């Protein structure tokens, strides 16, 4: 439909140009004299160029795009170079290039940026380097480059979308967070973590032969007094507890802040050599049972780059079955609005839960409403730790709670 519309408009412009040619020629024939024929011969090159431009094939023009920024964070800059190639060195005058995308958030940035106008002349290839600032988080698909050419006076204009599809992933921003486990216990528990955080030197579990590098304070001196052989005390390895991270994707003005907080928490846990399970609740449940390595983290960052606020029902109704299947005792719940129904759902469905921390994301300077304060107090009365976090204190989420 658009192609038919463009072709109709093009032929309409050609008819107008031919009418101008006929008009100037008729004027010269009937008027006669130097001035009238001068006008005709002066307009003839422009009219001839317009007709030739209308017949110029845009289908043979090719385009390539080179992306300079391999990874983009929210609010960062995206840079690329578009190169146009053509076989026929037909002289082109006003050529306008612009990127085309179906992403609404990215399209707002592209529309506000003025398109690039180039005068290629006889050149068979020419380039355009551009930068998009303040990129929004998400998965954005660049559909192609829109090429528009025009003659001297805009009598004839031709437009074509040169398809070259590429995907831009804009990842959420992250903040350095000093991770502290919500709870610790010894490795004889049923859910000991696979890594050691610290040795508790107040509880010896046995002795072994001395090895070079053992601390002097670990030597079992009573055994040495009896056998004259150096022996070293062995201690219980104190290990962190596996964590279950839950967040909801309800529509909220603070959803972007919520995504940044979740990304920062995941990054801090992995970099602390810890592990956790992660569940993101929306129209589709995205569950990651083990998050421990950089590979797991990259997969999650890909998910957080694309995720949208698409939860279309109360979170307590959407998460009940997952909480029943949760086999960890520490829950970290990130939300923009804590509800009484969600508190009841956690209590009712998470049978083995011993620790629950609720992080409620708020905007900078946002005041707490009275009804929200009542919900927070209710959750605290049930043994939950409730903390309101804003962007300026993301980094101290775990350390302040520990204190």
Automatic annotation (TrEMBL):
Record protein name field: DUF58 domain-containing protein
Residue intervals of the DUF58 domain: 207-310
Species the sequence originates in: Planococcus donghaensis
One Pfam family named in its UniProt record: DUF58
Entry's transmembrane regions: 12-32, 38-58
Keywords: Membrane, Transmembrane, Transmembrane helix
Coiled-coil spans in chain: none
Record-linked InterPro entries: DUF58
């Amino acid at each position: 439909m658009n192609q038919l519309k463009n072709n109709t408009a093009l032929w309409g412009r050609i008819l107008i140009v031919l009418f101008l040619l006929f008009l100037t020629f008729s004027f010269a024939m009937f008027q006669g004299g130097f001035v009238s024929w001068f006008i005709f011969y002066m307009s003839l090159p422009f009219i001839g160029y317009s007709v030739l431009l209308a017949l110029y094939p845009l289908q043979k023009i090719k385009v390539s795009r080179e992306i300079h920024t391999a990874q983009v964070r929210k609010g960062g800059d995206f840079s690329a170079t578009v190169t146009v190639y053509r076989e026929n060195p037909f002289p082109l005058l006003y050529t306008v290039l612009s990127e085309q995308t179906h992403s609404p958030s990215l399209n707002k940035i592209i529309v506000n940026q003025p398109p690039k106008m180039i005068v290629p002349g006889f050149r068979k290839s020419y380039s355009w380097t551009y930068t998009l600032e303040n990129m929004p988080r998400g998965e954005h698909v660049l559909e192609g480059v829109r090429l528009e050419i025009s003659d001297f006076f805009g009598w004839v204009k031709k437009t074509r979308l040169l398809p070259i599809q590429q995907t831009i992933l804009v990842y959420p921003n992250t903040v350095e967070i000093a991770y502290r486990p919500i709870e610790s216990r010894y490795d004889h528990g049923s859910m000991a973590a696979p890594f050691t955080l610290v040795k508790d030197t107040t509880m010896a579990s046995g002795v072994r032969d001395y090895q070079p590098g053992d601390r002097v304070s670990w030597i079992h001196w009573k055994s040495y007094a009896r056998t004259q052989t150096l022996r070293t005390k062995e201690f219980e390895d104190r290990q962190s507890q596996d964590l279950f991270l839950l967040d909801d994707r309800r529509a909220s003005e603070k959803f972007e802040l919520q995504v940044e907080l979740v990304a920062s928490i995941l990054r801090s846990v992995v970099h602390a050599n810890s592990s956790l399970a992660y569940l993101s609740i929306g129209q589709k449940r995205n569950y990651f049972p083990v998050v421990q390595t950089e590979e797991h983290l990259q997969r999650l960052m890909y998910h957080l780059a694309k995720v949208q606020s698409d939860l279309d029902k109360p979170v307590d109704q959407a998460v009940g079955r997952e909480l029943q299947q949760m086999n960890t005792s520490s829950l970290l719940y990130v939300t923009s609005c804590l509800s009484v129904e969600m508190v009841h759902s956690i209590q009712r469905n998470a049978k083995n839960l011993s620790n629950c921390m609720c992080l409620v994301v708020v905007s900078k300077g946002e005041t707490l409403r009275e009804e929200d304060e009542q919900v927070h107090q209710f959750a605290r009365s049930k043994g939950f730790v409730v903390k309101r976090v804003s962007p300026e204190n993301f980094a101290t989420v775990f350390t302040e709670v520990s204190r």
